[in-house]
């Protein structure tokens, strides 16, 4: 493609710091590779003195390949790598580390499992708990926080500190480091050994960083030391695509770059070569609602294009049916399945859609791990209740549900491989309160015997008290009970069409078998529709994109309570929108699991530019008809409506969220 003036300015930058604001599809890889070539061929820089940093190994390899193709193999010696690869190289020279000193993922998980067992913690969702705890530990190390001032979001402070310290002790005893230690140790090395720092400063005289918006504090602190004294720091990124706050990424670092380097230059790559004008305009209207960002004026290289289709459905089934119908329609038009994607906020959303894709034999590829609903610990509990109701008496089944909810039944009373209620009563002898509980359990299982799966789940939830158990567990785990209820709701919803347990169990087996086949076929069949989370979609592009479940509580996620969280959610939606090259569908539902849902505020923001809602603007309201804005202040619109012949005060957020206003 032709190089535009902004790209040229960035490519021809020689010495000193420069911030390159690179929006979606603006050619940032081209700029980084061309500027690297320019430094070598025009400025006489030794290739070995150039360091190009990316965030993933795949991105580093792709950048290197692009550079080699561009230079025809010349310029060998440029250092391409991830932060971790570069910093570990530095540690290898200083401390003689080898790959054997880096903890493997399976070792790390085993450490945490043993720590949890030692602390006698009853964790249902152990895998998820470990994942969340490791994220928190990573955040503390990345921010160089004091453990004493950290408040865990997954368990009590006391328990978290014990887990953290036990994990650190195990690492040290085994002479192991994790990926976060690589950063911390490298920072400490540079702070303490000016002589070693000087060697690496001389080696890396020109530093280029891709995806700079994803940087965390310790990475930035190291880079600042490494770039001294010349500060030949060339950073490329888009603050509007910073979506990893939960990993410690801080868009504020990029926003404050000019304060840290007041002598630095800044250039904006303001042409989007990926998406059509209609998509670019929608994306711009959305993201300008964030306050903490660099103002931008992105222009589309591809004029016109199809209108963005925004549609709301009564229920999930209708949404999924239309997604599949549209996919098949686009395929008939000659668009390969591999150029289509369905994006969703969380990886638990697409189960029902997967069912529908399987039904119509549409090949799909799961770019993220889509958890199998039926493997979830809540599902295992519910299925176990049903199996016991069917007459199964295995000891393992009773151990699974005996204290879910709490009945205070001891494990010791299940001594035999098969459980007998008569022996259970004998075990507790004259303990009346325990005999009552055992009687109630037997009654409950008998009551469930001939129920449909849907009715059975209803009784397990309310009659047995499983919902109360989930509420208690959520409080213990410091998560919202709603999240667990969503899983329970989805499980119950999946049983609607089945009259017996056997029928439903057969469906589960078929679904699991089909999933296995899909995973196998993905390796052979590359022509598949991509199912991707919004986070997983970053860096990808497709001709056709469907964003599903664009509802409040899903996107933005219900966890987004602070303004910073909401801005991150908006950036995430912006990333999803800008994956589309030509066709973009944004779908929402009005009801899910018998609960009313409202359309995401982001949909309204894309339709309506807040800045255009000023005094004197003519508007059309869905219910009140034509009118003129008299005032727009503090989230309230005062509008004079022609037909009503009077003014009305309306809530701006509500109007935008529910798509009530259009400009005339």
How does this structure look, described?
The strands form five sheets. This protein has a six-stranded parallel sheet with strand order 3-2-4-5-1-6, with helices on both faces. A six-stranded parallel sheet has the order 9-14-13-10-12-11. It is of the alpha/beta class. It is 47% helix and 16% strand. α1 crosses α2, α8 (179-192) packs parallel to α10 (217-227) and α13 crosses α25 (601-607). β15 (591-592) and β16 form a beta hairpin. It is globular, with a radius of gyration of 29 Å.
In the predicted model, the low-confidence regions spanning at least 5 consecutive residues are none
Distance between the termini: 38 Å
Structural class by sheet pairing and helices: alpha/beta
Main sheet: strands, sense, barrel: 6 strands, parallel
Rounded average pLDDT: 91
Cα-atom radius of gyration = 29 Å
Q: Percent of residues in helical segments?
A: 40-55%
Strand elements, count: 21
Question: Looking at the structure, what is the overall shape?
Answer: globular
Note the beta-strand portion.
Answer: 15-25%
- Count every helix, treating DSSP H or I runs of 4 or more residues as helices: 26
* Order of strands in the sheet with most strands: 3-2-4-5-1-6
């Amino acid at each position: 493609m032709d190089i535009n003036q902004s790209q040229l300015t960035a490519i021809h930058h020689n010495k000193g710091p420069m911030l390159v604001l690179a929006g979606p599809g603006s050619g940032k890889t081209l700029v980084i590779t061309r500027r690297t070539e320019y430094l070598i061929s025009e400025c006489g820089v030794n290739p070995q003195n150039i360091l190009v940093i990316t965030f993933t190994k795949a991105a580093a390899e792709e950048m290197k390949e692009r550079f080699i193709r561009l230079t025809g193999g010349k310029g060998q010696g440029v250092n391409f790598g991830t932060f971790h690869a570069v910093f570990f190289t530095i540690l290898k020279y200083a401390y003689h580390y080898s790959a054997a000193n880096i903890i493997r993922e399976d070792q790390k998980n085993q450490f945490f499992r043993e720590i949890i067992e030692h602390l006698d913690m009853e964790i249902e969702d152990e895998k998820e708990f470990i994942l969340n705890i490791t994220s928190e530990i990573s955040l503390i190390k990345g921010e160089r926080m004091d453990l004493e001032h950290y408040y865990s979001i997954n368990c009590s402070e006391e328990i978290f500190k014990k887990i953290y310290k036990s994990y650190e002790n195990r690492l040290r005893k085994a002479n192991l480091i994790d990926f976060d230690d690589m950063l911390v140790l490298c920072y400490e090395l540079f702070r303490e050994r000016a002589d070693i720092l000087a060697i690496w400063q001389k080696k890396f005289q020109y530093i280029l960083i891709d995806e700079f918006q994803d940087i965390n504090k310790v990475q930035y602190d190291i880079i600042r030391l490494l770039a001294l004294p010349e500060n030949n720091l060339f950073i490329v990124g888009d603050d509007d695509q910073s979506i990893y706050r939960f990993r410690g990424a801080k868009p504020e670092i990029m926003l404050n770059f000019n304060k840290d380097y007041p002598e630095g230059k800044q250039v904006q790559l303001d042409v989007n070569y990926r998406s059509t004008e209609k998509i670019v305009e929608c994306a711009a209207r959305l993201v300008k609602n964030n306050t903490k960002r660099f103002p931008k004026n992105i222009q589309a290289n591809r004029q016109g294009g199809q209108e963005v289709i925004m549609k709301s459905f009564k229920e999930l089934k209708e949404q999924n049916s239309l997604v599949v119908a549209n996919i098949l329609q686009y395929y008939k038009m000659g668009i390969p399945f591999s150029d289509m994607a369905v994006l969703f906020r969380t990886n638990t959303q697409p189960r029902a859609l997967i069912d529908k894709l399987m039904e119509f034999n549409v090949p799909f590829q799961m770019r993220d791990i889509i958890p199998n609903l039926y493997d979830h610990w809540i599902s295992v509990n519910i299925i176990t209740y049903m199996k016991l109701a069917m007459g199964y008496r295995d000891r393992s089944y009773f151990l699974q549900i005996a204290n879910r909810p709490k009945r205070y039944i001891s494990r010791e009373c299940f001594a035999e491989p098969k459980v007998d209620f008569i022996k259970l009563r004998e075990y507790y002898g004259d303990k009346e309160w325990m005999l009552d509980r055992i009687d109630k359990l037997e009654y409950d299982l008998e009551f469930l015997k001939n129920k449909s799966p849907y009715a059975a789940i209803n009784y397990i939830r309310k009659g047995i008290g499983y919902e109360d158990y989930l509420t208690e567990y959520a409080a213990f785990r410091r998560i919202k009970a709603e999240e667990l209820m969503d899983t329970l709701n989805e499980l119950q919803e999946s049983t609607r069409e089945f009259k017996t347990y056997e029928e439903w169990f057969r469906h589960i087996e078929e679904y699991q078998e089909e999933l296995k086949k899909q995973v196998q076929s993905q390796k052979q069949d590359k022509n598949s529709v991509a199912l991707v989370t919004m986070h997983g979609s970053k860096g990808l592009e497709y001709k056709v994109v469907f964003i599903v479940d664009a509802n409040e509580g899903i996107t933005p996620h219900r966890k987004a309570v602070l303004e910073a969280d909401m801005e991150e959610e908006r950036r995430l939606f912006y990333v999803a929108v800008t994956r589309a090259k030509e066709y973009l569908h944004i779908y929402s539902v009005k009801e899910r699991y018998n609960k009313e849902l409202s359309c995401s505020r982001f949909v309204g923001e894309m339709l309506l530019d807040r800045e255009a809602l000023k005094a004197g603007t003519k508007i059309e309201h869905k219910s009140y008809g034509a009118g003129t804005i008299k005032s727009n202040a503090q989230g309230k619109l005062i509008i004079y409506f022609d037909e009503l012949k009077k003014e009305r005060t309306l809530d701006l957020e509500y109007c935008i969220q529910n798509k009530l206003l259009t400009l005339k």
